[in-house]
Amino acid sequence: MARMSTSPQAAAAAKPPRHGRSPSALALAGLLALAVAMGVGRFAFTPMLPLMMRDGLLDAAGGAELAAANYAGYLLGALTAAPLARRWPGSPRSLVLASLLATALLTAAMAASAAPVAWLGLRALAGLVSAWALVATTGWVLAALAQTGRSSEGGWVFAGVGSGICAAGLLVWAGAGWATAPGLWLALAVLAAGMGGAAALLLRHGAATPVATPRARPSTGQPAGPVGPCPGTAAPGRATPAERHGPLVLCYGCFGFGYILPATFLPVMARSLLDDPRWFGLAWPAFGLAAAVCTLASGRWAAHWPRQRLWALCQAAMALGVALPVLSHGGPAIAAAALLVGGSFMVATMAAMQLARTQAPQQPTALLGRMTAAFALGQIAGPLAVRALAGHPGWDAVALTSLLAAAALAASALWLWHLPPAPVASA
User: What is the reported pTM?
Assistant: First the structure.
């Protein structure tokens, strides 16, 4: 009789909710999705640029134009990601997978065309769909992991960016001595299709149901975050969402401006010192490996640090990494820049997006979209500043812009460090 008296509520509490695939499979699918979207869709052009210059397909000015086109597409994707996710027919999973398929096709198209005008359009579209995939994957997968009580698995999702950069960089490095640039673009498309297909298999049975508002959790004695009575309103005497989120958005924009020069030109800078692709080609895989390892390490050892403090430390490390190649020309400075910027930029991204989820837990996608848009604007400003300064004879445009970027990173790091600590969401 005692067994029959168990209430439905108690039975439901005793049985963990089903989310299709396991949290580990969901995290691995998120890792693969970001590896395709960012490692290939966003950053494969970085190791390809010196090789396309070697083959006479591009010069430095043309490379900056293609980079800017990708960043402009990324901005458009960031601005449209949130409304697209609301209107997309089907589950959030289908939007992620559609974006990954588009990335593979657009990468293959880079091999099929030799027209710079066509490349501009293809790189812009690749930036567009990569932003969709980033916002959709992080907004959905992280919330789904939180529902399973496995928020700590989010580090593996963000490690996908560095893993994708490293995989794409190693592929280009391996083929640089014998393959043509179009052949390498095709190989990158195959890599993207393979990783995207693996993500689709992991999600085939519905790794998580579409996530809406996170469910309330039992009180732990800690504030759950600054949730207002309803979106767009604030209690008397409290800051509006725009006032709370403005510093985050601005600092994320400085982040985009600050890191984009090494993220675009680091292999080109390495090639200026060593023309052998067996050596300069290693700069980008090292950048990605540092990103993946440091992302996972921060999830393990810095999980309870205030997110904005961790973000501030990362931007300070990036400031040093961006400035070093300007202050000291040589291989050690390039290597240090790869490790400092590569090792911090994804940790900063993860910390910023986790902070955004604590600041807007009921509607994280909207804030993530605004931050991603500011980030994209900063990225566009980087190459535009280089182009503007390049018109002055005798000026080293990349060096001057790098010093400006380092200053922006350092200033935003100080601002973040002195912001009032935000509550850390419990796992």
Answer: 0.78
Residue 94 is inside which H or E element, if any?
A: helix 92-112
Q: How many residues does the chain have?
A: 427
SS3 letters for 281-333? CCHHHHHHHHHHHHHHHHHHHCCCCCHHHHHHHHHHHHHHHHHHHHHCCCHHH
CA contacts within 13 A on the Cβ side of 329: 7
Cα angle 76, 425, 422; round to 5:
80
Query: Under a CB-based contact definition with an 8 Å cutoff, are residues 178 and 277 in contact?
Result: no
Structure tokens at 22: 């396991």
For residue 311, is it within any domain? yes
Condensed to tens digits (0 to 9), the pLDDT of residues 201-241 reads: 887 754 444 444 333 333 333 333 332 322 333 333 444 55
Query: Using CB atoms within 10 A of its CB, is residue 407 exposed (0-12), middle (13-18) or buried (19+)?
Result: middle
Tokens representing residue 392 in the block:
């002055």
In a domain, 7, yes or no: no
CATH of the domain at 314: 1.20.1250.20
Tokens representing 114 are 């030799």
Number of domains forming the structure of the chain: 1
